[in-house]
Amino acid sequence: MSREAGSEPAGRPARYTAFVGEATHAVEIVPLGGGRFRISIDGRAREVDSRPTSTGTFSLLIDNATAEVSVVARGDEFAVAVDGRTHRLRLLDERALRQRARAGAGEGEREVRAVMPGKVVAILVEVGAAVERGQGLLVIEAMKMENEIAAPRAGTIRELRVVPGQAAPPRRREPGPGRAGGRTLGAAA
User: Fold this and answer.
1) Same-domain check for residues 48 and 73
2) Looking at 97, 128, 156, which one is the last position of a domain?
3) Does the structure show a pLDDT above 50 at 161?
4) How far apart are alpha carbons 55 and 34 in whole angstroms?
5) Which domain holds residue 129?
6) What is the rounded CA–CA span in Å between residue 125 and residue 145?
7) How many CA atoms does the CB half-sphere of 170 hold within 13 Å?
8) Does the predicted TM-score (pTM) go above 0.70?
């Protein structure tokens, strides 16, 4: 027996904590069926109608306004492009949030690498600069959009290995013996 589109019962709510720069938001997503969702951010609920238009791209209808949205996900990190601007966020469910709290912020040097190939158009920091988690480090142009690469945590810029105009290949898996990794854009110590 088949159901008509939109007649499925509402699903279980999924609850997340979203990290956008230094801001933290409570997110709840309730599937309503037929590509519709009730999405609450910090208690403010909206009904969203979502239709995939291609891989990773969706047409959204929110309060009678439409938006074309592209989403690239890597684990719990998301890059969401809307109107030519890319927004980066991290979504953690309750279990992942507990694991993060147990693991702590982490210490030591951290290399920052490009997510996708592109061209460095601007460097927003200098060597020796103190940066906060989520602060912009540089801007890369990829697929005709400018993407700001943000600091994964607070630290000090020890080294910059790129210049404006230089190509930035995407990050790759950590190199094993005899394999080279992607281009390092900068490092926070």
Assistant:
1) yes
2) 97
3) yes
4) 18
5) 106-188
6) 20
7) 8
8) no
